[in-house]
Amino acid sequence: MSKLSTSGFNLRDRFGDWWDGATGVQKTVFRVVLIGLFYALPLLNNPVIDTPETSFSSVLFYPLIMFSLMAVGLNVVVGKSGILDLGYVAFFAIGAYTHALMSIHTPLNFWEIIPFAMAFAMLAGVILGLPALRLRGDYLAIITLGFGEIVRIIAINTDAIGGAMGITGIPGPTSIFGIEFTVMDPRPYYWLTLTLLLVVIWGVLRLTKRKPGRAWEAIREDEDVAEFMGVATLKYKLWAFIIGGAIGGLAGAIYASQIRSIQPELFTLNLSIMILATVVLGGMGNIWGVILGAVLLGYIPEKLRFLSDYRIIFFGLLMVVMMNLRPNGLLPRKKREHFKEKI
Amino acid sequence: MSKKLLEIKNLVVKFGGVTALNEVNLHVSEGEIAALIGPNGAGKTTVFNIVTGYYTPASGEVLLDGEAISGLRPYKIARKGLGRTFQNIRLFGDMTALENVATAADALNKSGLVGSLFGVPRSRRDEKKSLETAMELLTFIGLDHRAHQMAKNLPYGDQRRLEIARALALNPKVLLLDEPAAGFNPQEKVELGNLIGKIRDRGFAVLLIEHDMSLVMKISDRISVLDFGQKIAEGKPAEIQNNQRVIDAYLGVAEDAS
Amino acid sequence: MDFSILYTNFWSLALDGLVVGAIYALISLGYTLVYGVLRLINFAHSEIFMIGTMVVYFIIGLFGFTGYEDPLPLINFIGIFLLLTVGAAVISGGSAVLLEIVAYRRLRNMGASRLSSLISAIGASFFLVEVFRKITDSRNLDFPRLINKDPFFTWGTLYLSADKVLVIGGATIIFIVLNRIINHTRLGLGIRAVSQDERTAVLMGVNVNRIISYTFLLGGVLAGVGSAFYMVFYETTKANVGFLVGISAFTAAVLGGIGNVKGALYGSFALGLVQQYTSAVLGYNWRDVVTFAILVLVLLIKPTGLFGEALQKARV
Fold this sequence. Notes:
The structure holds three protein chains of three kinds. By secondary structure, chain B is α/β, with parallel strands linked by helices. Chain B is built from ten helices and ten strands. Chain B has a six-stranded mixed sheet with strand order 6-7-8-3-9-10, sandwiched between helices. By secondary structure, chain C is mainly alpha-helical. In chain C, helix 11 (261-282) crosses helix 12 (287-301).
């Protein structure tokens, strides 16, 4: 069997060749080392990777790992299914408000609230998705954008949930396995999010490599034809929305538990656009690509502080440039093609 | 007389004020290759779009194996056993050939998303079956060696055949082919004719839209002719060849106002 | 909630609704014209409008007004206003043409997906907003009051003032001119041809790229003119002014049936009126929620708009 590698990221092909030829033990070792490295990141004290103004470990939590989690969620919607969701921040906000309100007004702790945060975000996905997903393309984009803004404006105008002042004094997670979650130390939150991110990646990869993944890609490629080929397009689009929403809600709950006070102004359209930019930069539809995008776009403005003031200018420009010059992102979703000569 | 698998009765279709199809009756019987011909704009593709549920007719009925299907969503109709190809190729370009076919094969099982996530036994079984069906169909049309190539990178002829394999993965009662020979050279047309024959022999009834008359005349069991949204003739190839109205329609003689 | 305001202030709300509607109309025409030729929502159009307001602010700054002057004599004001309008129209129109070249043209020629064009446009929109946020330091930029806004005519609660008359009168003239351009010039013919059927238009020898450029130009010029009216009426702008104005104008275009020029006019006036009446009852804070709700409802219930002809479903 010969491999047909088309143009593109050569390093990636080299790695792919190695990976295809690797034994099970080699793959396991590689995975363990890589994951171990990520867990060890906050312990590294290296001036090369350290960020000047905010401590590296808090940058690791926000924006790096938070962006990554949200990017993986949004990628299911935008990258896999081709649904442009400009209101993704709404799910994040719903998760954050769920944790904030429930942790204050109910006896439940963070771990017990997580399922609620995800469930409410999923419910919001259904409520928005059922009507909106009947529309296509740019109309859908506008509707989702409107949804994100409506959630924020309602939060500002509803005094029962703190109005424009938001909610303060949100409890953090209770300690688990002897790990304490304090205000001062962002590292446990990073480890928590990393663990959940790994679970989410596992789940998303399972889905995308099987029937649901094929259905989503078919919808992205040509929705009409997908329907003619027996794909229940509305159902799968709705699932994409629900799954993306659940991941966004999860991220929001963790975020609220760490920063301890939230305001509607944290959940603006800008955040939706930043997450979209990470997905676009990394490579729509490729889970590793979007994580790379999230890491780059989260890290670079923190490392180079002079850039951070111009962050959104840069993100906007990046979206135009990427679409025009490298529409598939840094790590395109291109599958490696195998090709056997017919004898 | 063999069973009618697809039956179109008194179909009327209007776009805005224009009548695209007027009181059209057609059928496809078991084990038959039926052809639908007519000049450009006669309404042939519209028939496909109605049958597959993309448009709703103003009036009339579409029966698939005796069951009324008009008004159903296209994916439901597809699952009941109707596969189609497209005049201008519409593959899922960024998916491999195998995935293209497997996507349609997936429609025949009921495995859901939650099952796939947790890898329940039924979902594993269905997954395996979809991929096997897809591979088997790729072998059938002679594309197994290209299974893992992107659909958009396949040569033109292979793309056309891949569309047929994808439609077959729905295990259709009737296969609708929309100009499958478009862009083919004479040699490829002969091969396509053989393939369609093989498809019929596997037990699929075929409804074919085609402009290449020698192909149509050679492989069809029965031909219907549309002109300006009306059926003007129907019969065996030899009858159609000698039908004066058909000849007039193709030569552009004005229709009499009957 | 106080519904009595609806009838006590019925006519003054109606007048304000028409004024706001006229401004929306000038902007929504840009959405609708571009949608007609490209079948694409020009996401960055709101920023073209924002640039117009910035130009107006900049030009007025050149005159050295402080905002404490006595109102200008009407004739002087009209002279200055014409200058502002022309300046904003030129720069906005030029920006729109440039935007099309940078954000859309290459993608269109590559045959890229709609998703790509949309993301490109959103990127351009964010880029422009943030550039102006940096330039203006996120400040509100106030426009001096150059015209006497005291009512010169009163009827019940209806107060007619010069600025409102100017907006409605000026916009009416623009609409008449636009109507002539679209229906009676070669350019209008080209735009209509491309809107109907791009492929046939190409076969008939229409230079589609040029028509698209002119369409963006026309939309940009209208948005520029709208920005001058906006500044006289609202007397303030900021870098992200385009977002909510743009959403309203877009909603108006959808309400009237996007792609339909007359529909954009009707939709704008209808939305302006609805916004005034609902804000009066619910409070100004909820205005944008109402706008979004209208947008969502129209798209879901009657996506062709209230006055739109049915758009053909994409052909299979």
